[in-house]
Amino acid sequence: MATSPCHAHTPDDLAPAGVSICQAGGGSLRSDILVVGSGPGGAITATLLAEAGREVILLEEGGWVSQEQCLPFSRDEMIRTYRHGGITAAMGRPALAYVEACCVGGGSEINAGLYHRTPPDILAAWRRDWGVEALTPEDLEPHFVAGERELGVIHHPGDPAPSSHKLRIGAERLGWRAMEVPRWYSYQPLPVGANNPDGKRFSEQRNAMSRTFIPRFRQAGGQLIARLRVDRIRKRSGLWEVVAMPTCAATKAAPVVFLADTLFLAAGTIGTPTLLRRNLLSRRAGNTFASHPTIKITARFPEVVNPPGSGIGVHQVKGFSPRFGFGCAVSSPPYLAMGMIDHPRDLPLIAHESERMAIYYAMARGQGRVVAHRLLPQPIPFWRMTPVQWQDLTEALHKLAQLLFEAGADTLWPTIAGSEPLNSRADLARLPALLPAHLTRLMTIHLTGSCPMGSAAKGAVTDSFGRVHGQEGLYVCDASLLCDAPGVNPQGSLMALVRRNALRFLGQA
Questions:
Q1: Tens digits of residue pLDDT in 369-409
Q2: How far is Cα 268 from Cα 58, in angstroms, rounded to an integer?
Q3: Are strands 357-363 and 315-317 parallel, antiparallel or unpaired?
Q4: Model confidence at 312, in pLDDT bands (50, 70, 90)?
Q5: 231 and 255 in contact (C-beta within 8 Å)?
Q6: Residues facing 36 on adjacent strands
Q7: Are the C-beta atoms of 240 and 335 separated by less than 8 Å?
Q8: For 163-202, what is each residue's pLDDT tens digit?
Q9: pTM exceeding 0.90
């Protein structure tokens, strides 16, 4: 009856003072508010409630992994901070590989920090189709502004990665607009010298939850307990009883029981509906989920575009949104190896040409559901795309390949099994008119919409402010609240919404 376990191995002894790592289990704890999940939704909610004087306990299934412990976007980071080391997939044709964080701070610790406000047309659709209240751009403006200030959302102060410039150059030559996306990163000037062999002008650091809201939460008196996986939830004598199991004990451990007046779930788009369904708290939870299915192209250029430490590109093409968009993907050697898995003959090129190679993506929209039952050891996500969405993704792949040749690429490797590399513009005619479902390899890092907010009459799981329909004192505060895939990186939308909802809960909005 547990959600998908996290198998990451982390040196929890390096956790800062005030972060409890559950080892043995047993006993019970009482609090005013319990928040399950320390990603952006849970951390922001817990912090605002603690700073308002509420007694709050924040639980996290994963361990503590500081940014200094492993190189960003490395194999080590994947093993330590991703659920199942990043080997997770939604069933479908084809299967949709996805990644979820499993560590203190959640997805903010592993993503590129690319920030978008929710597009106004998406907000209008959610108001119309789901009956969500107080969701105009004007309603969310103060919450966007506050989040951008608190996380330090800014544009890169120097020159972005050369691979990012390639996307911009190709788009401009085709008359498409490429935008530079801001990030929640801090930048510090670096001296050029012996200690800076790569010639980088700035050091950069994610303003993740472990560096921003979680320290604020602890300063406000909140208690964070890591390495606890929630198993059972029920209402007893007017309180929420939550049973959790330690995930790092060497031997079979006793459960820990929590009692709280109010319970907030931020266990993620897969984990939150799983807890609601398995504990008979919502029959609608998991009936939907939304994603941005993504196809990738590894491109090689005559010159260096991916020097060591160049990071992820910050340019995106959004002129075709919400149907599809393009962007730069992580291009470290481990990710290049995964990107070339459909081209084993050329895989050895990475060993000596990785600095000339970079990965780009085209993303569309898809939907699915999360099946969770007491008799199933793990939740099973399913997904699908409509024929129109398949056509959108196919068109996106064609346009992305065209853009990369315009930018000067000499070879393209799409993630289509059995396909041949593309070596010139003339080869674009060999791309399929419709992507073959049984050969196309897709992935996503954006999962949303499994507990959509809005009117009960519209089929929503929660009301407009995150309270689960039919349940007093039970709230959702993660990306499962979003009604659909927003067509942009979703964490900016999530952070504004949970801030709005927390202040509403406190009677301050």
A1: 999 877 777 899 999 999 999 999 999 999 999 999 999 99
A2: 14
A3: unpaired
A4: confident
A5: yes
A6: 59, 265
A7: no
A8: 999 999 999 999 999 999 999 988 887 776 545 545 566 7
A9: yes
Residue 148, pLDDT score? 97
Instruction: Tell me if residue 446 is catalytic.
Output: yes
Helix axes 120-130, 137-151, angle to 10 degrees: 130
Closest among 470, 132, 451, 125 to 288, alpha carbons compared: 451
Reference 454, options 429, 423, 427, 476; nearest CA is 476
Name which of 293, 311, 242, 237 is nearest 89 in CA terms.
293
Handedness of CA 335, 341, 344, 346 (dihedral sign): negative
Contact between 184 and 206 under an 8 Å Cβ cutoff? The reply is yes
Q: Taking Cα atoms as reference points, which of 391, 384, 390 lies closest to residue 91?
A: 384
With contact defined as beta carbons under 8 Å apart, do 391 and 434 qualify? Answer: yes
Secondary structure (3-state) at 366: strand
| Inter-helix orientation angle 40-51/491-505, to 10° | 30
List, in sequence order, every residue forming a beta bridge with 357; answer none if it has no partner. Answer: 300
Residue 137 phi/psi, 5-degree rounding, is: -55, -35
188 φ/ψ angles, rounded to the nearest 5 degrees: -125, 135
Handedness of CA 323, 328, 330, 333 (dihedral sign): positive
Considering the chain, what is the average pLDDT of its residues? 90
* Nearest partner of 170 among 339, 295, 315, judged by Cα: 315
Q: How far is CA 72 from CA 84, 296, 335, in A?
A: 18, 20, 12
* Contact present, 356 and 303 (Cβ < 8 Å): yes
Residue 65 CA, chain-centre distance (Å), reads 17
CA–CA distance, 18 with 274 (Å, rounded to integer): 30
Residues 389/364, Cβ–Cβ less than 8 Å: yes
Spatial separation of the C-alpha atoms in residues 84 and 387, rounded to whole Å: 31
Q: Which amino acid is at 114?
A: L
Give the closest residue to 276 by CA, choosing from 490, 126, 478, 63: 478
- Which residue in the list 9, 373, 446, 469 is annotated as catalytic? 446
